[in-house]
């Protein structure tokens, strides 16, 4: 292994099994730079495509090529919808991803739903469910079509799970549908503000329109997959646009029912880490059950002279995130009893 693919703090006996790339919140738009809602962070709408090209170039030339890239959601910005540029912007981003020499798994964020309906996304190239793996004789581990989630095995004994954090949401669904009515009811019960994107005065600030949650059906499915992974002694990586652990995230960015997701995850041994986007600022915390929560820094708020992506190197006893630019390096040890015996 050369110096580049070795983050440097490894014990000499450990051998890298495989690696994967992570990138979040590209939010491309053909617009001049702007600012976030609070006016505190600059957004580089055009530069974001160049940042993506740069990341792909680096992944393509790694001596030991990553097995895949996990795209954590919000590939194009909601502004595209106002300018009727959604399809054009998506095409540019997807054409850029075509130059990546490994598969990319796309997660869906709120900005996907500002531009497209759920039905449109399901038929688009942002639906990468065809890359899922099925577990034979375990129909309970097959996801329903009513949410966009799946799991796959990039390397024996490692399972990756993509979650749909907008399974419960008022975004992307027809206002006349029962699902919309149900989700609007949940949102209004927790948020009395006229502007539902405002968390002002809320005891649970995550109940805003730009967030969403996980249906009981999806959580039951997640529980089944994790039960299988426990039995099969696998290590699991979970990906979701929305974060679920308060210590690692601004509370206004969490999934509506993040506690329900944590309850499922904490009832299993197999989960090593949980990657999310959405916050743009980045964050990290290890929870009391040993799960590492990583919120990746967003491309959109990354200056032209910096970078924001990473490669995760997987070892028998840990995962190591090698961050580029403003993404810091992280060592994610498995819990002692969770070390993989090869
Ligand atoms: Zn988002």
TrEMBL record:
Q: Which GO terms describe its molecular function?
A: 2',3'-cyclic-nucleotide 2'-phosphodiesterase activity; ADP-ribose diphosphatase activity; CDP-glycerol diphosphatase activity; manganese ion binding
* Enzyme Commission numbers on file: 3.6.1.13, 3.6.1.16, 3.6.1.53
Which UniProt keyword terms apply here? Acetylation, Hydrolase, Metal-binding, Zinc
Which metal ions or organic cofactors does this protein require, according to UniProt?
Mg(2+)
**Reactions listed under catalytic activity:** ADP-D-ribose + H2O = D-ribose 5-phosphate + AMP + 2 H(+); CDP-choline + H2O = phosphocholine + CMP + 2 H(+); CDP-glycerol + H2O = sn-glycerol 3-phosphate + CMP + 2 H(+)
Q: Which SUPFAM superfamilies match?
A: Metallo-dependent phosphatases (SSF56300)
Q: Does the keyword Hydrolase apply?
A: yes
User: Where would I find the Calcineurin-like phosphoesterase domain in this sequence?
Assistant: 19-280
- Member of which family? Belongs to the ADPRibase-Mn family.
Its job = Hydrolyzes ADP-ribose, IDP-ribose, CDP-glycerol, CDP-choline and CDP-ethanolamine, but not other non-reducing ADP-sugars or CDP-glucose. May be involved in immune cell signaling as suggested by the second-messenger role of ADP-ribose, which activates TRPM2 as a mediator of oxidative/nitrosative stress.
Subunit-level organization = Monomer.
Protein name listed in UniProt: Manganese-dependent ADP-ribose/CDP-alcohol diphosphatase
- Write down the species: Oryctolagus cuniculus (Rabbit)
């Amino acid at each position: 292994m050369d110096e580049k693919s070795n983050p440097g703090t490894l014990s000499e006996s450990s051998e890298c099994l495989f690696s994967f790339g992570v990138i979040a919140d590209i939010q491309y738009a053909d617009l001049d730079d702007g600012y976030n809602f609070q006016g505190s962070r600059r957004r580089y709408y055009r530069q974001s495509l160049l940042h993506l090209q740069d990341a792909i170039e680096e992944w393509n030339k790694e001596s030991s090529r990553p097995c895949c890239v996990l795209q954590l959601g919000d590939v194009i910005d909601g502004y595209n919808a106002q300018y009727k540029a959604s399809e054009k912007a998506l095409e540019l981003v997807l054409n850029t991803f075509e130059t990546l020499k490994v598969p990319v798994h796309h997660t869906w964020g709120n900005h996907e739903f500002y531009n497209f309906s759920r039905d449109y996304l399901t038929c688009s190239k942002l639906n990468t469910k065809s890359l899922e793996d099925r577990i034979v004789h375990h129909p309970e581990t097959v996801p329903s079509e009513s949410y966009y989630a799946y799991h796959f095995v990039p390397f024996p004994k490692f399972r990756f799970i993509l979650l749909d954090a907008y399974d419960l949401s008022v975004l992307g669904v027809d206002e006349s549908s029962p699902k919309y009515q149900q989700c609007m009811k949940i949102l209004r019960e927790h948020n009395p503000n006229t502007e539902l994107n405002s968390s002002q005065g809320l005891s649970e600030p995550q109940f805003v329109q730009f967030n969403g949650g996980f249906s009981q059906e999806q959580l039951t499915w997640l529980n089944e997959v994790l039960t299988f992974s426990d039995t099969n002694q696998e290590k699991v990586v979970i990906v979701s646009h929305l974060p679920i652990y308060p210590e690692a995230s601004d509370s206004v960015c969490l999934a509506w029912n993040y506690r329900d997701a944590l309850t499922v995850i904490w009832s299993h041994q197999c989960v090593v880490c949980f990657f999310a986007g959405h916050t743009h600022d980045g964050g990290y915390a290890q929870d009391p059950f040993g799960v590492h929560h990583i919120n990746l820094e967003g491309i959109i708020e990354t200056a032209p002279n910096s970078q924001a992506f990473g490669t995760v190197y997987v070892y028998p006893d840990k995962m190591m995130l090698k961050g580029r630019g403003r993404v810091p390096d992280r060592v994610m040890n498995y819990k002692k009893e969770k070390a993989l015996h090869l």
